[in-house]
Design brief:
13 helices, about 350 residues, mainly alpha, about 60% helix, two-stranded antiparallel sheet, single chain
């Protein structure tokens, strides 16, 4: 992998004192991109490793709920589109693992952390997909929430992460349109189809709002990650933007958001261009959120078991690829020496 040459990126030949930290923060404030070989605070590096690896794990595990429906898609066209989408998500995981490797951690170590429960992935992928409507709702809402969260990451202060996000966001926009198309088809279909998609919306709405992470008062890392411009918006700000953007779409589809407290508030300050107005919405069940994050969601064990099995069964492929790479390198070296 091209990132392996950067596994020892940066140096330890600097003193992480106040002067260094101030100089580093000045680069951030000037919107300079931090690159793999730049000296950086250990906490900055560790924060990026945690966030990027969690993002990568989420992309790979996120293939599982939808992969379950590839062979059961209702038409060949839907099957081809879903297959392409799942393939995209595998690619996103590849980009993100590669970006994390530039920070000095190997992909193997990241996977081991995931399987050992030391690393997390998005809580949303611990919910089941019992109906075809779930595939539409995932594309419309889950990928819509992902876009809301990930577009600001295109301006992340760490260069490799920001550049990876540019392509990822473009592909996620396709995923959202695919999901909206499925949802619209069902919502405009028969009474049975509309009820199926409404049931799916009822099950997914609150877990999707949880995707943005804990409330700002409980998010211990947000202030620092925003100072470093890894994040650009707080969890609650992004959650509010998502609700404000999504409710009109649901109304267009003729679907009902499962929240009795949802109401437009013309006086709500949402922080968008000094304009007021936004939706008030009900309380999130944070007990459920933390229960799922800690491993007790409906599908937590199944997801990790599937990922563990895939990692074990793929060992021979990784070994074969490594041997092939070593042979190719020796052959190339021999050819260079002969030419010299």
């Amino acid at each position: 992998m091209y990132t392996q040459g950067l596994l020892n990126a940066g140096t330890d030949d600097f003193v992480e004192d106040d002067a260094f930290l101030a100089k580093f923060q000045a680069r951030i404030d000037n919107e300079e991109k931090i690159e793999p070989n730049d000296d950086m605070p250990k906490a900055y590096r560790n924060t990026l490793i945690r966030q990027i690896s969690q993002h990568a794990h989420s992309e790979i595990i996120g293939m599982l709920p939808e992969g379950n429906w590839i062979s059961r898609s209702p038409t060949l066209r839907r099957k081809k589109i879903l297959l392409a989408k799942v393939q995209d998500e595998g690619g996103h995981g590849l980009y993100l693992y590669a970006a994390a490797e530039t920070l000095g951690i190997s992909r193997e170590e990241m996977i081991e952390q995931l399987l050992a429960g030391k690393a997390k992935y998005s809580s949303i992928f611990n919910y089941p997909t019992p109906s075809w409507a779930d595939i539409g709702i995932i594309g419309w809402l889950v990928d819509g929430a992902a876009i809301m969260n990930q577009i600001p990451l295109c301006r992340c202060s760490y260069g490799p992460y920001a550049r990876a996000m540019v392509r990822i966001c473009k592909e996620e926009s396709f995923h959202q349109r695919q999901g909206f198309d499925i949802t619209q088809t069902l919502a405009k279909g028969s009474a049975v189809q509309k009820q199926m998609v409404q049931d799916s919306l009822n099950r997914w709405w609150w877990p999707v709002l949880m995707m943005f992470g804990p409330s700002d008062s409980d998010s211990t890392n947000s202030d620092q990650t925003m100072r470093w411009r890894i994040k650009r918006f707080t969890n609650d700000t992004l959650r509010q933007k998502f609700v404000d953007a999504t409710v009109p779409q649901a109304e267009f589809l003729g679907l009902t958001i499962p929240d009795d407290r949802l109401k437009w508030n013309p006086n709500k300050n949402t922080g968008k261009n000094n304009m007021s107005g936004g939706y008030d919405f009900g309380a999130i069940d944070w007990d459920e959120f933390w229960r799922v994050v800690k491993g007790d969601g409906p599908m937590n064990r199944d997801r990790l078991k599937a990922r563990s099995n895939a990692w074990d069964k793929g060992a021979w492929v990784r070994e074969a690829a490594l041997v092939h790479a070593q042979k190719s390198a020796k052959k190339s070296q021999a050819a260079s020496q002969k030419a010299a």
